[in-house]
Amino acid sequence: MKLAVTAPDRLDVRTVEIDDPGDLISRLPHSSALAWVRHGEGLVGWGEAARLTVPAGPGRFAAVQGLLDELFGSARVDDPLGVPGSGPVAFGSFAFDPASGDSVVIVPRHVVGRRGGRAWLTTIGDAPGPATRTMELAEPPAAPSQLSWSDGALSAPAWQRAVAAAVEHIRAGRLGKVVLARDLYAQASEPIDARVLLARLAERFPACYTFACGGLVGATPELLIRRTGDAVESLVLAGTAARGATPAEDAERAARLQASAKDRQEHSYAAQMVREALAPLCAQLTVPSEPQVLTLPNVLHLASPVRGLLHDERSVLDVVEALHPTPAVCGTPTDRALELIGRLEGMDRGRYAGPVGWVDARGDGEWGIALRCAQLDGTRARLFAGCGIVADSDPEAELAEAQSKFRVMQYALEG
Ligand SMILES: C=C(O[C@@H]1C=C(C(=O)O)C=C[C@H]1O)C(=O)O
């Protein structure tokens, strides 16, 4: 594995406490944004003090952690706050497939953080000017215009055939579950500004993690892992139903989802694997015996909140490595599911369904699974959505489920 690294020999890092900046996303001065925001709290970043381009291959998480240890370990750091996300941080977005696609890790020159009534500004490289200088509101960016839509690798009927083929493999006993995704393109007349999408997503999906890294922009409900000191948390999602039109219909659909043997099976593959991956790392681990229902503006999900205490000092990236790819986005068993995904989807997922998030110099951080997202490339956006397939899956129902997941980014682009 050969990593491309652009970084100075030694980072000069300074964090200062600042007045409440309010909405973080409106502080971003240009479209090449880095973001991780939920309920108005989190981190936004811009500029590049360092960039790591990580090729496919085993050990990519450990390789990144090793480089960050060097970079952060040799840095001159003035960080009087000492809270998760203060001092130097790296944002990252890893490719889904361990065998294909580059991953991107960026140490921004400027980071604004906001959590629990405190806010901070971190500057790398330059002597920071007065905090108010960078706190000026950026010019409001323009919304995407004249969008046209087209299929990605597979049309809707072709994708339904892929789902039917997956069901055959599962019924033949070759695997228990596989997650199949498809892509969709949006073409705009002008370059798409990530900040417009981020602002719309954060407003409409406040309970999701609105993220941006290396042009991948989305709002994921799925927390792969948060590490704060020795405490770790995860939110496993798998099993989905459409929202109802009224509160009564929602309640009825939530009850049906919780009682659905097919969705419970889809969910238990994912929850069980997360338990098995975390157990060896944890002195204590709690996985609820029954999933709950998470209600989002577009869908309902079966959800298992997992909590644990690490028994050794480990960076959040070590835990990401132990978890990815979970059956929420890949399948069971992992190797057969990966192979079938490669055969049936007809596309490279890139960084969709890979880990996305941030890590600081203490090894604290938050990583989600990059879902409900699009890869921006100038005037074009490539959207992704996928569904867990088990023996009882129906291709038409899975297509409808994928459409309801696409709606998140369709809304972000169209308003
Ligand atoms: C694969 C996606 O979502 C995943 C699949 C789910 C399912 O199949 O029920 C639910 C949540 C996510 O874990 C996606 O949004 O693209």
Automatic annotation (TrEMBL):
InterPro entries listed in its UniProt record: ADC_synthase, Chorismate_C, IsoChor_synthase
Similarity-based family: Belongs to the isochorismate synthase family.
Name the UniProt record assigns to this protein: isochorismate synthase
Boundaries of every Chorismate-utilising enzyme C-terminal domain copy: 157-405
Record organism: Actinomadura rubrobrunea
Catalytic activity: chorismate = isochorismate
One annotated GO molecular function: isochorismate synthase activity
EC number(s) from the headed UniProt entry: 5.4.4.2
Keyword entries, A-Z: Isomerase
Record Gene3D superfamilies: Anthranilate synthase
